[in-house]
Amino acid sequence: MDGSRAALKAAYWAVDEALDRELPLGLLCAVDSGSPGANAAAAAETAVRSAMAAIEALDRPPKLEAEIVHRRPVTALLEASRSAAVICLGSIGFHHEPGSRVGSTATAVATSAHCPVAIVPRTFTARTGHAGLVLAVVDGSSAGDGVLELGAAEARLRGLPLRVFALPQHRPAAPGESDVPSDPPLPTAVDRWLSRCRQEHPDLDVDSVGYHEGLLNCFERLQRSGSAIQLAVVAPRRPGPLDVLLAPAGRAVVESAGSAVLVCDRTWWL
Q1: Which residues form the UspA domain (predicted)?
Q2: Cis peptide before 36 (omega within 30 of 0)
Q3: Domain boundaries in the chain?
Q4: Of 23, 112, 138, 237, which is most buried by a Cβ count within 10 Å?
Q5: pLDDT one digit per residue (tens) for the chain, 270 residues
């Protein structure tokens, strides 16, 4: 919590996560040691108290815990990620330039945390029951299995369909030609995982989507067809799909869709 509207949106999003997992919801506010003492401490108290009051006013508030720590936000969040089930962050904070990519704190935490990190769009309103789907995005890297397993777990937790989007792998270009996708792009590995997933979780509606279109085009097509993406699951690996969704163009599409981006923790694939 930093007192921003985006942080409060992330707290609202985290309510259902805490209830689904039957866990308390922790509100963490980090006061940078370089900030003016009394003013920073008062702002932190206000941010936490306001968020607690807003959440307690909901029909089904989870158990709440709150903590104010005196260290850099990224350091505090990475420490918290060692014991948290998931870290939930707003897509931007107070010190953010319009039209730029997702905030630096969210980016740093998402790529280094010890647990999954959810980046919540400012357009989030409320989870609409069993409407929409979970999208797992893989790119042929070693992180793929972790993304797929986390995507399946999140889809089953929410009672939503799981769709898998595979970015094509690229092979090095031969002399005199430009880079081209490998043939086939990824379907063999993904199809093998889909078959195993259907056997292990017959209750889960799981399928692949859009091997031959760009990730943002896939987002927009699903949105137009009425299949809203509640959650997009990606790896922390960079460069990769995370960079596509954090860049200005990706952020605009994600905000328009109202989708949260869930970054799996590094232990899934290291």
Answers
A1: 1-121
A2: no
A3: 5-120, 133-172+181-263
A4: 138
A5: 888 888 999 999 999 899 989 999 999 998 876 655 567 788 889 889 999 999 999 988 999 999 999 888 899 999 999 999 999 998 775 444 444 445 678 888 988 899 999 999 888 877 655 578 999 998 877 778 889 999 999 999 889 999 999 876 554 455 555 554 444 445 577 888 888 899 989 999 999 886 667 888 888 888 888 788 999 999 988 788 888 888 888 888 888 888 899 999 866 544
User: What are the CA-CA distances from residue 55 to residues 15, 18, 81, 200, 207 (Å)?
Assistant: 8, 12, 22, 37, 36
User: Architecture of 5-120 per CATH?
Assistant: 3-Layer(aba) Sandwich (3.40)
How many angstroms separate the CA atoms of 59 and 256, rounded? 27
Torsion of CA 205, 260, 269, 204, to 10 degrees: -10
CATH class of the domain at 133-172+181-263: alpha beta
- In whole angstroms, what is the distance from residue 143 CA to residue 268 CA? 7
149, amino acid identity: E
